[in-house]
């Protein structure tokens, strides 16, 4: 993030982002190796805490099972991990994991998943415009690929990709879907994020259709598996689901829905939950 860059602050609401007004960003703080070491120790502690909680075992079971069911592995563990290695991963909207406990546990969960499914950490790209310099360095030291540009979630995939977007704004989900909006590509999109059904419940249908049309169209044909959460981690993983788009289900949508998907811009959204990239003024 360039120093002095302007973007919108996103605050946590009830498990979902809300956008504040435009403000100047603070200068990123200097990155001390000792501080990063402490940070990494805290991440390791979080990983160990999650490992000791039963709900992690349920996540592991469900995610391994779902990967197998979607043809990316078999019931035999070795085969699952071999196939899972083919997965790319993109994590948007993790938040400030050095200062925010929820974000730290979400990062710890991602590391646990990679370890279990034998996905190389380097296959995961990370981006959040609020990351500090120190957090970017910590992520690189952990092996992640840290993106330097705000893609606004508009990432075109070319192979099965897990999008890890916990408690992110609707525009991010909608943008991911738009960029990969075809019968051939969408089945390769796997989301771990806010329940789409929950989003639908909390919104007026006409506003969902008007502002987030890809999300709205996908909700009826996606396959959502709710991920459990222990009371202790309610704030961290509430309303989280694994969401997939099986070919047989998305084929139910009318052909016209796939033709020339128009890029979303959200000019008229009153409560936009995404930090947009800076655009050049002519
Ligand atoms: C409600 S917060 C969730 C943070 C964290 N995952 C949690 O549950 O506490 C939404 C996050 O989305 C991030 N975000 C906003 N626009 C983004 C963008 N264009 N790309 C990636 N992340 C973005 C915000 O900076 C913020 O950290």
UniProtKB/TrEMBL annotation:
According to the UniProt entry, which residue ranges have a biased composition of type Basic and acidic residues?
Answer: 23-38
**According to the UniProt record, where is the region Disordered?**
17-38
Q: Would you say which domain of life the source belongs to? A: Eukaryota
Indicate the segments forming the SRR1-like domain, all copies.
83-243
Specify the protein name. SRR1-like domain-containing protein
PANTHER family, from UniProt?
SRR1-LIKE PROTEIN
Q: Which gene encodes it?
A: SRRD
InterPro entries given in the database record: SRR1-like, SRR1L
Query: Which Pfam families would you find in this protein's record?
Result: SRR1
What species was this sequence derived from?
Electrophorus electricus
Q: Where does the record locate the signal sequence feature? A: none
């Amino acid at each position: 993030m360039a120093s002095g860059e302007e973007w919108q602050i996103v605050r946590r609401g009830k498990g979902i982002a809300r956008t504040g007004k435009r403000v100047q960003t603070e200068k990123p703080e200097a990155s001390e190796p000792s501080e990063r070491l402490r940070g990494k120790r805290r991440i390791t502690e979080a990983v160990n805490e999650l490992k000791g909680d039963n709900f992690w075992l349920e996540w592991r079971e469900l995610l391994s099972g779902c990967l197998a069911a979607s043809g990316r592995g078999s019931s035999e563990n070795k085969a699952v991990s071999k196939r899972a290695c083919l997965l790319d991963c993109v994590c948007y909207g993790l938040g400030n994991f050095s200062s925010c406990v929820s974000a730290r546990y979400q990062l710890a969960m991602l590391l646990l998943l990679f370890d279990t499914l034998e996905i190389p950490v380097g296959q995961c790209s990370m981006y959040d415009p609020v990351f500090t310099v120190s957090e970017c360095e910590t992520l690189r030291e952990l092996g992640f690929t840290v993106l330097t540009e705000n893609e606004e979630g508009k990432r075109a995939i070319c192979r099965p990709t897990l999008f890890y977007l916990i408690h992110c704004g609707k525009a991010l989900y909608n943008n991911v879907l738009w960029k990969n909006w075809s019968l051939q590509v969408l089945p390769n999109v796997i989301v771990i994020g806010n329940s789409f059904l929950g989003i639908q419940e909390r919104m007026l249908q006409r506003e969902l259709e008007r502002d987030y049309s890809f999300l709205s169209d996908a909700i009826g044909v996606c396959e959502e598996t709710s991920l459990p959460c222990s009371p202790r981690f309610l704030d961290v993983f509430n309303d989280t689901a694994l969401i997939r788009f099986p070919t047989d289900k998305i084929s139910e949508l009318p052909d016209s829905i796939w033709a020339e998907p128009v890029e979303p811009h959200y000019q008229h959204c009153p409560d936009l939950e995404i930090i947009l990239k800076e655009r050049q003024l002519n």
